[in-house]
Amino acid sequence: MKNSVGREIPENIIGYKEISIYNKPFDKEPVGRKAAPLLKQIKPKDNKVLKSIEEVIKKAGLKDGMTISFHHHFRNGDYIINMVIDKIAQMGIKNITIAPSSLTTIHESLLKYVKNGVITRIYTSGVRGKLAEAISNGVMENPVIIRSHGGRARAIESGEIKIDIAFLGVPRCDEYGNASGKGEKTICGSLGYAKVDAKYADTVVIITDDLVDYPNFPASIKQTEVDYVVKIDSIGDSKGIASGATRYTKNPKELLIAQYANKVIVNSGYFKEGFSFQTGSGGSSLAVTRFLKEEMKRKKVKAKFALGGITKPMVELNQEGLIEHLFDTQTFDIDSCESIIKNSNHHEIDASMYANPHNKGNFVNKLDIVILSALEIDTNFNVNVITGSDGVIRGASGGHSDTAAGSKMSIIVAPLVRGRIPTVVDRVNTIITPGETVDVLVTERGVAINPRRTDLIERLKGKGIPILTIEELKNMAADIVGTPEPIEYTDKVVAVVEYRDGSIIDIIYQIKQD
Amino acid sequence: MKNSVGREIPENIIGYKEISIYNKPFDKEPVGRKAAPLLKQIKPKDNKVLKSIEEVIKKAGLKDGMTISFHHHFRNGDYIINMVIDKIAQMGIKNITIAPSSLTTIHESLLKYVKNGVITRIYTSGVRGKLAEAISNGVMENPVIIRSHGGRARAIESGEIKIDIAFLGVPRCDEYGNASGKGEKTICGSLGYAKVDAKYADTVVIITDDLVDYPNFPASIKQTEVDYVVKIDSIGDSKGIASGATRYTKNPKELLIAQYANKVIVNSGYFKEGFSFQTGSGGSSLAVTRFLKEEMKRKKVKAKFALGGITKPMVELNQEGLIEHLFDTQTFDIDSCESIIKNSNHHEIDASMYANPHNKGNFVNKLDIVILSALEIDTNFNVNVITGSDGVIRGASGGHSDTAAGSKMSIIVAPLVRGRIPTVVDRVNTIITPGETVDVLVTERGVAINPRRTDLIERLKGKGIPILTIEELKNMAADIVGTPEPIEYTDKVVAVVEYRDGSIIDIIYQIKQD
């Protein structure tokens, strides 16, 4: 079967549920009712506080074959996932499905547990490092399922992912489970992913290194959702949140891309009083925010809200009155973590409210403009942000396809080539975001507008923007670095890439070894 | 069958589900999973705003036999329930179950719809006025089900009450359904009851008289929960919130009761740094808060939180630093409504978090002291707050049984007699709160401690509190006003009083006409 973006999808995939193939962005309607956790009675004198991870694993009744979840708000500073799985392995429990909101390099030590059968399935937004390489080389029997942030929330809310036990690390918590994003030792800001797990998991375990007096309020996760609380020495390193991200670029190529992107925004018709936007944490993306700020001041245009993935430049715009509200699923740097605690217009939202396509109205639906990155983009505007030029998994689906689908204008910012690797190609290795939801590609060598958007083509003419076709950009890239040899794969499926609605948009195969 | 508080419960009640009889406060464990609403997709360009109540009733698909819900945050100032039912009746829809969080005198105009079959079932915390009289006189075929605030939340969360459509009036809302408790025309503070309906109803309709630009944040009810938004001229009269309540008593009897109650609290062992309490909105109750304030200042004791039912005296204690947090399901006066909007330590909580016995930890479980009222209390400490001395329904179950069960010490404050009617009796007309959850009765003539609480009896000795047995108080009351003739009833069940766990604690029968 071919899906509507031209990818061949097998009729059966071992270790995967019933196949549903991608067709159109809003084609797949949800069926049935939301999932719901078990009912439970907690009596006035009941105690939720347990002494150790081991005790909580026993009390929560973790057994072979169960599904457990985690969040990645600490990104590369997370200690919880490795710590819990170490303990599970020690206790001799096997055949576990892990469903973290994402995995980063710090989690590559899980590879040994994938090899010895402690972990047999992984559902995640992304995976990196040695674990990702091993997966791409076929280490797992069951394919990893890659979901967007909205897609994960949808899968949990619909019951597609049934979480038996959620292990949620939080910077501060009281004895009854009221948990928040800033504590004595760590800070992580929004707990937007964790909030979804807390609502739907059958058993919710809070792990903290700052257990405070009752009641810890305001709370991101609340006592009515929590079964057990465990205090440990250290849940993570907040410095890991910002590693690599939110740098202030001086790279002339990135600055040029940001300038073009800014011109696209300002002339698009969407840049007007009360607009909304989301930008990422990459160099060009952050630079766009800076240029946009100047433009907003000059034209006296204020934004109603920014969405994300909140970064310091957005917090500054909010402080200066240029953005009224910040809606935050995941906080990308320490300054922003401080902001969400003390700033009443910096609102925490959960991942479902952020981007789940199957609830009664998410935030990405209300987004005017989104700036996104790409590892590759093809001449149909399909975007890859998950596999490298060698075919190896090295990224994350994130909110890419969610914001592209929801927003009125999605702009991809990317250099035309990276080293010897073209960004604009005939066919991307892996499709995360379908081209029909991508409106503009901005490179340092020119800007391509999706032909579907005749309105934008019209509005951006004669505005000092070097408009080319995407084929022209592809040819320019090919002229510089040539056309890379296609990657060779076996026919073993190592990952299924789900679109946000749960249909399959692409398959990642095992890389053929030399 | 007799339940454990000695009430004869029929084996079958026409129009009522399977019978479960009350045994012990925490005896009944929940079974199964939480209820969950239908999944739904809202696409980026979908519009939720409809033009009229009539249009929304059609769009939402209201049909004969369905269950609809409302909240009573406007208390006697609510326009929504009457307005929606008027329209439903005009449209010829019949056989509707209404499940408001409570009903007040303003809703007595629904009597005509009970008579003509538009409304055939009522689930509520309370009912008053002509509608209540007619119910007590047998106007309905199916018994009214009386639930506590926690019991209602439990019934909705467990799926026992399945709400097809919730019609929720809110002071302010945006086009996507983000709703809050203060608007241009009205204010109601916490939307604690409405939040439960919004989470579990299949279709959620927001009705507002202040439709503002997106996004209206912070929001009590959020866009992910809302199907339709309707703007009308006026949703209610905020003055109705405070009618009768929160008066500053000068009545010497009430002041004496408050003084004794204060002495009980101060000497109980629970009055210490970090304690928690709830007081009601009656004269004595408010006076207790005033006395307590002096005592807190004198002894330099601060409370961690107050729960409720929040009133101005509590807000003042919070402002003065004597109470750290206020947790608010329902706001009882305009000053408190203003406070919850602007005061970051005045937190809105939903009715489930407040008092649902079948979630993972409600607030009443964490309560040290609660002050409650009574229409009658019997020598087993069972309390009636629902039927008058004539047997007619005239009150509400409210949070009475919830807080009595959850708290470490529940204190009933009541005058020994009211006019010609004794408060302390051998047998109360109707049991709302079982005596085993009631610890102390404070009257102007003396204080009775539940014999079960030997610890309290010991601690309150020799503290200048006139301690009597409850039989002595009953005899004193009988000496003053005599023993009233028993009320005569037919064998028709007009209301079933459920305990908070869903078991039947009492039955209200039709009054025999002269």
From TrEMBL, chains A, B:
Keywords, comma-separated and alphabetical: Cytoplasm, Lyase, Transferase
Family matches, as InterPro entries: Citrate_lyase_asu (IPR006472), NagB/RpiA_transferase-like (IPR037171)
Keyword 4Fe-4S: no
Signal peptide annotation: none
GO molecular function: citrate (pro-3S)-lyase activity; citrate CoA-transferase activity
Statement: the UniProt record of this protein carries the keyword Thylakoid: no
EC number: 2.8.3.10, 4.1.3.6
Subcellular location: Cytoplasm
Pfam families assigned to the protein according to its UniProt record, in alphabetical order: CitF (PF04223)
GO CC annotation terms, alphabetical: ATP-independent citrate lyase complex; cytoplasm
Catalytic reactions on record: citrate = oxaloacetate + acetate; citrate + acetyl-CoA = (3S)-citryl-CoA + acetate
GO BP annotations listed: acetyl-CoA metabolic process
Name recorded for this polypeptide: Citrate lyase alpha chain
Native source species: Maledivibacter halophilus
Lineage: Bacteria, Bacillati, Bacillota, Clostridia, Peptostreptococcales
